[in-house]
């Protein structure tokens, strides 16, 4: 999709203006969709449980557009792409393990809170 | 002190740029230099993602463990302002991408124009953000320990605040940009006088960039008044009379009355709130103890909930909100500085088809800042 | 083959080199040369080592008797905190990568410099600022008493200089990221022509694996410390239980960085040892690809085990079990390395000079440090041993017995390359003996104390432990003496030692093809790509009294080996 200029060095890949504008309008459309579903979703009969995953799916589509075309990842060296994507893997690991742990001990905290707050009320 | 190590034993002159205008001495070719820089910036973006990851972890954990906090808190965020900022940033990403293209083709003038637009969008974003922040600070929506939701907007005390009917906090947030604007204007006049054409051009561009901030503030106020008016319909008339008034709250009238002795009214306030909201109140273990302004009219609605019905941890949402958006704003400011450097080099005509690396690298950084906002927007503003 | 004068020019002692090519303090303070930055880093980490070492000796002196009144309890807390924080953040983490790696890595690739020389210099200045901030905690008169881990909620409540210190660690983190990022890019894009990944010296592989951790883990430390500062100043309620925060979450954040950071500390040391063992056995390293991939495996597995620091912190049982199980898998790549080193020694022609003595010490000490780690990774024994001197002894065996020993070995190995002068090998070996024996005397008794229940971080203790503490204190002073002696030997040789040739040890990696000291641009000619572990490629040249690549040699005047002379 990038312009082909024979006189450019091998590492220079200008992206065509048409594609850039196309991506931009795609991003705007997705933004409008996500705001609209958030504001009107329940009115249109969408189950509330869908709202968050839908918003994340739309955000990820937008992220894909930005990464692939604005950030030239589509044409970039695979090592760079790999490096960038690997960071997401480590973030997932970080979130996943931590969540697994706090999710496990959360009931203990809540029980402690209830007891403590009960005591506070008694002392007052 | 660019290069300390001049070295005479060899025939060639070892300046930093000894082969090819902008190829550093330790690289063999333009391509090797470009590839190194590109990998370097990608790795830098990796560190940025992991830097933000801590806040995303905190977000995920608190949202999973305390979903009710997030449901109660999100109504205080204005999704139309958030959406506006999203579009501003997306547009800046477009102009950045166009700027990279121009640099790749060696079109320095086009590149400088695109970079200038990108910078203006960036400062506009910050302007809108300043409106959002000051609005929340007015209402006492602060981090967990200071959270004290009152809806009572304090009357402006600064002269400018009084004159324009805007929040004191917004005035404070405009001080630095105003000084910068004045500084750049003076600098552009001086550099024009001493006949430094490029420098004058640069200073004018910087002044335009900073003006973007005030444009953002104005647009932000207009949006805020329009949308808050729509949601808090009872006070549409107040807003219509005072278009610049950043006080689209439900409690203006009473705020001024008990502004000074609010604490004495605590019991009375609580009683009033209790009588109105007995049902909800009973379900909660502990509340703020923050006093809703008295009056007891049924002025609370979905967007202006009774503070006494909120979870005591609702401030944690705003702790996370301020950390995330604040860190993001710091990245925007860093981006503006980097863009200003690019703008300067575009004026000097540095970009060529085989040397455009810096524009590409800063562009990648700028898109990452945009990417993070793409996620922050639904995570913070679009909770339902 | 080239003529004699060219040979002289390439491998003889040059008139100008990177040390004397420019003069004045500015030529050092603003240099972009990786070798000079490496030397400045070496000086910096040495200062940090001595500073933190003095803190350690004060601690050990205090602990000499069970009812010592030398330090107040508060002073004691501050002393061990600063010892830990300065040692970890200012000394061990930058020691091998930023000092030795900076000097050697680009030369091993046949490159003129690292990819981003300005960033390299910035990294050094960030190191200075960060260390300054850490020390500002003392100068502010408040000290720091949280332990180097800054655990919440105590770090939020204490009035000591937590903000200075955390800000210092934050800055030091960026210094570390800059070094790591630089190395990753340098290795990726600046290798010599035809130098494939499997023709790299193993030190490069280990620095690469280290750099992966630096880039991926250190930013998390950055955000953690920023959030801690925000918690302490604004009370944002993320870590502080008073405001609905979760203090265990801080430990997750902290160890997500700090456990991988343990591998930032040990992996470069392992790389140094791979070089030393091979060169001083004059034998191809055994199992090259296993050692190379075990470095990467350790780096990646290092991200999966952080929870083993939190077994007794209230972490949930499921997660604890998972972390314990994964912890054991780290032992596999570590053991792979040790077995490969031992196999390399087998039937090698071993030269027991100073660097090799340090390398052999490393294998022994790291072996003990690694094996005792398994007791701590096992849940049931950890409940007993957690927060005792057993843990202290374990991580000192790995960090001091491992990293410090490897650093000294590596410094002795490359010292002649850096300065063009030879050290006194006898005194070097005496130093090594003192370090080794002093170290064991210091920390072995701590295993015994710890398993008998002596808790760490206590300013006083039961009389029954006194004999162990006394042994430990004596050992600490012997260790200090050994390090001081090595320091004197090194400094003296750099200034007054006899001149040495470009490749006195018959090493085959590319940095030995430069003159000693190297040229400003590292190599006057483009180095001939040789297999770093094919020592047959280097032949002895009588005229120059050094080993040079066969391609450059005069066939009439070479011998395969020169008998090494011990002094």
List keywords for this structure.
heterotrimer; A: 124 residues; mainly alpha; 2 domains; 3 helices; 75% helix; flat; C: 567 residues; Cytochrome C Oxidase, Chain A; three-stranded antiparallel sheet; 16 helices; 64% helix; 2% strand; globular
How would you describe this protein?
The complex is a heterotrimer of chains A (124), B (384) and C (567). Chain A is mainly α and 124 residues long. Chain A is 75% helix and 0% strand. Chain A has helices spanning 17-40, 48-70, 78-123. The mean pLDDT of chain A is 84. Chain B has 384 residues and is mainly alpha-helical. Helices cover 66% and strands 0% of the residues of chain B. Chain B has one domain: Cytochrome c oxidase, subunit III, four-helix bundle (Four Helix Bundle (Hemerythrin (Met), subunit A), Up-down Bundle). Chain C is mostly helical. In chain C, a hairpin with a 4-residue loop joins strand 1 and strand 2. The longest helix of chain C has 36 residues, at 73-108. Chain C starts with a helix and ends in an 8-residue tail after the last strand. The model of chain C has no long low-confidence stretch (mean pLDDT 93). Chains in contact: A-B, A-C, B-C. The A-C interface holds A 79, 86-87, 90, 93-94, 97-98, 100-105, 108-109 and C 188, 216, 220, 246, 248-249, 252, 256, 303-304, 306-307, 314-319, 322.
Strand order, main sheet of chain C: write it out: 2-1-3
Listing every helix as H and every strand as E from the N terminus to the C terminus, the arrangement of chain C reads: HHHHHHHHHHHHHHHHEEE
In CATH, what is the class of chain B? Mainly Alpha
Q: How many independent structural domains of chain C?
A: 1
Mean pLDDT of chain B: 79
Which word captures the global form of chain C? globular
Corresponding CATH architecture of chain B:
Up-down Bundle
CATH topology of chain B: Four Helix Bundle (Hemerythrin (Met), subunit A)
Report low-confidence residues of chain B grouped into runs of 5 or more.
1-19, 230-298
Low-confidence stretches of chain C: none
* Secondary-structure content class of chain B: mainly alpha
Which two chains share the most extensive interface? A-B, 61 and 53 residues
How many distinct helices of chain C?
16
């Amino acid at each position: 999709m990038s312009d082909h200029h024979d006189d450019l060095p091998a590492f220079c890949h200008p992206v065509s203006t048409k594609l850039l504008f196309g991506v931009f309008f795609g991003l705007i459309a997705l933004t409008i969709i996500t705001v609209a579903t958030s504001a009107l979703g329940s009115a249109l009969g969408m189950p509330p449980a869908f709202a968050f995953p839908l918003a994340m799916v739309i955000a990820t589509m937008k992220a894909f557009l930005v990464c692939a075309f604005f950030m030239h990842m589509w044409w970039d060296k695979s090592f760079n792409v790999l490096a960038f994507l690997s960071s997401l893997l480590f973030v997932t690991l970080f979130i996943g393990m931590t969540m697994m742990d706090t999710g496990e001990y959360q009931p203990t905290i809540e029980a402690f809170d209830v007891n403590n707050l009960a005591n506070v009320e008694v002392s007052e | 002190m660019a290069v300390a190590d001049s070295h005479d034993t060899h025939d060639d002159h070892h300046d930093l740029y000894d082969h090819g205008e902008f190829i550093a001495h330790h690289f063999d070719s333009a391509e090797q230099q470009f590839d190194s820089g590109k990998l370097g910036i990608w790795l830098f973006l990796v560190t940025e993602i992991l830097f933000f990851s801590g806040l995303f972890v905190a977000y995920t954990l608190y949202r999973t463990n305390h979903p009710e906090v997030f449901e109660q808190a999100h109504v205080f965020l204005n999704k139309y302002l958030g959406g506006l900022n999203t579009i501003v940033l997306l547009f800046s990403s477009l102009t950045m991408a166009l700027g990279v293209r121009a640099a790749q083709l060696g079109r320095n003038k086009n590149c400088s124009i695109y970079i200038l637009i990108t910078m203006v969008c960036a400062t506009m974003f910050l302007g809108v953000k300043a409106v959002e922040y000051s609005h929340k600070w007015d209402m006492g929506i602060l981090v967990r320990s200071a959270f004290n939701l009152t809806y009572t907007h304090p009357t402006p005390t600064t002269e400018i605040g009084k004159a324009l009917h805007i929040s004191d906090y917004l005035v404070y947030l405009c001080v630095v940009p105003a000084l910068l604007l004045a500084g750049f204007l003076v600098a552009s006049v001086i550099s024009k006088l001493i006949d430094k054409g490029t420098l004058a051009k640069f200073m004018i561009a910087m002044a335009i960039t900073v003006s973007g901030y005030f444009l953002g503030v104005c647009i932000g106020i207009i949006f805020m008044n329009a949308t808050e008016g729509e949601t808090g319909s009872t006070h549409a008339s107040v807003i219509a009379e005072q278009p610049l008034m950043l006080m689209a709250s439900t409690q203006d009238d009473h705020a001024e009355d008990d502004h000074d002795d609010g604490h004495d009214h605590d019991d009375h306030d609580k009683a009033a709130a209790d009588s109105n909201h007995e049902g909800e109140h009973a379900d909660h273990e502990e509340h703020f103890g923050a006093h809703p302004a008295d009056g007891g009219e049924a002025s609370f609605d979905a967007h202006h909930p009774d503070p006494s019905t909120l979870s005591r941890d609702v401030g944690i949402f705003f702790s996370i909100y301020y950390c995330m958006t604040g860190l993001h704003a710091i990245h925007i400011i860093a981006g503006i500085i980097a863009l200003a450097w690019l703008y300067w080099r575009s004026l000097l005509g540095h970009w060529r088809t085989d040397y455009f690396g810096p524009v590409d690298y800063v562009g990648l950084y700028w898109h990452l800042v945009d990417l993070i906002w793409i996620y922050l927007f639904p995570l913070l503003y679009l909770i339902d | 083959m080239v003529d004699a004068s060219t040979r002289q020019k390439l491998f003889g002692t040059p008139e100008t080199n990177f040390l004397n090519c420019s003069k004045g303090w500015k030529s050092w303070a603003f240099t972009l040369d990786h070798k000079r930055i490496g030397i400045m880093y070496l000086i910096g980490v040495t200062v940090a080592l001595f500073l933190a070492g003095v803190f350690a000796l004060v601690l050990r002196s205090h602990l000499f008797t069970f009812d010592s009144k030398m330090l107040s309890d508060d002073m004691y807390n501050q002393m061990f905190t600063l010892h830990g924080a300065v040692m970890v953040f200012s000394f061990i983490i930058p020691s091998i990568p930023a000092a030795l790696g900076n000097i050697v890595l680009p030369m091993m690739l046949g490159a003129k410099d690292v990819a981003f020389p300005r960033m390299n210099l910035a990294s050094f200045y960030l190191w200075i600022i960060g260390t300054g901030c850490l020390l500002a905690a003392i100068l502010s008169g408040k000290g720091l008493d949280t332990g180097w881990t800054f655990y919440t909620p105590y770090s939020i409540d204490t009035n000591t200089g937590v903000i200075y210190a955390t800000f210092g660690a934050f800055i030091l983190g960026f210094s570390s990221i800059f070094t790591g990022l630089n190395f990753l890019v340098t290795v990726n894009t600046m290798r010599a022509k035809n130098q494939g990944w499997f023709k790299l010296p193993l030190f490069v592989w280990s620095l690469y694996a280290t750099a992966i951790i630096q880039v991926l883990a250190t930013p998390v430390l950055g955000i953690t410390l920023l959030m801690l500062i925000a918690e302490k100043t604004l009370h944002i309620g993320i870590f502080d239980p008073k405001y609905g925060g979760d203090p265990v979450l801080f430990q997750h954040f902290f160890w997500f960085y700090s456990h991988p950071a343990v591998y930032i500390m040990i992996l470069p040391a392992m790389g140094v040892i791979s070089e030393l063992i091979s060169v001083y056995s004059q034998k191809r390293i055994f199992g090259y690809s296993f050692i190379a991939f075990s470095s990467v495996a350790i780096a990646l597995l290092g991200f999966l085990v952080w929870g083993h620091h939190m077994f007794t912190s209230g972490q949930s049982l499921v997660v604890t079990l998972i972390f314990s199980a994964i912890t054991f898998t780290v032992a596999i790549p570590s053991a792979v390395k040790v077995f490969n080193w031992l196999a390399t020694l087998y039937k090698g022609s071993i030269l027991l000079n100073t660097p090799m003595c340090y390398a052999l010490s490393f294998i022994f000490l790291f072996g003990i440090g690694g094996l005792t780690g398994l007791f701590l990774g096992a849940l049931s024994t950890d409940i007993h041993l957690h927060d005792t001197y057993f843990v202290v002894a374990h991580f000192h065996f790995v960090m001091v017995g491992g990293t410090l020993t490897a650093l000294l070995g590596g410094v002795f190995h490359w010292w002649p390359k850096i300065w063009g002068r030879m050290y006194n090998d006898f005194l070097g070996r005496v130093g090594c003996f003192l370090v080794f024996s002093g170290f064991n005397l210091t920390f072995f008794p701590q295993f015994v104390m710890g398993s008998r229940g002596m808790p760490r971080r206590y300013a006083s203790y039961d009389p029954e432990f006194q004999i162990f503490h006394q042994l430990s204190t004596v050992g600490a002073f012997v260790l200090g003496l050994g390090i001081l002696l090595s320091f004197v030997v090194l400094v003296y040789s750099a200034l007054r030692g006899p001149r040495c040739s470009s490749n006195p040890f018959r090493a085959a990696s590319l940095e030995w093809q430069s003159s000693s000291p190297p040229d400003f641009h590292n190599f006057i000619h483009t180095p001939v790509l040789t297999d770093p572990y094919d020592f047959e490629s280097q032949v002895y040249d009588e005229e120059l009294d050094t080993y040079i690549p066969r391609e450059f040699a005069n066939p009439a005047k070479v011998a395969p080996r020169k008998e090494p002379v011990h002094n």
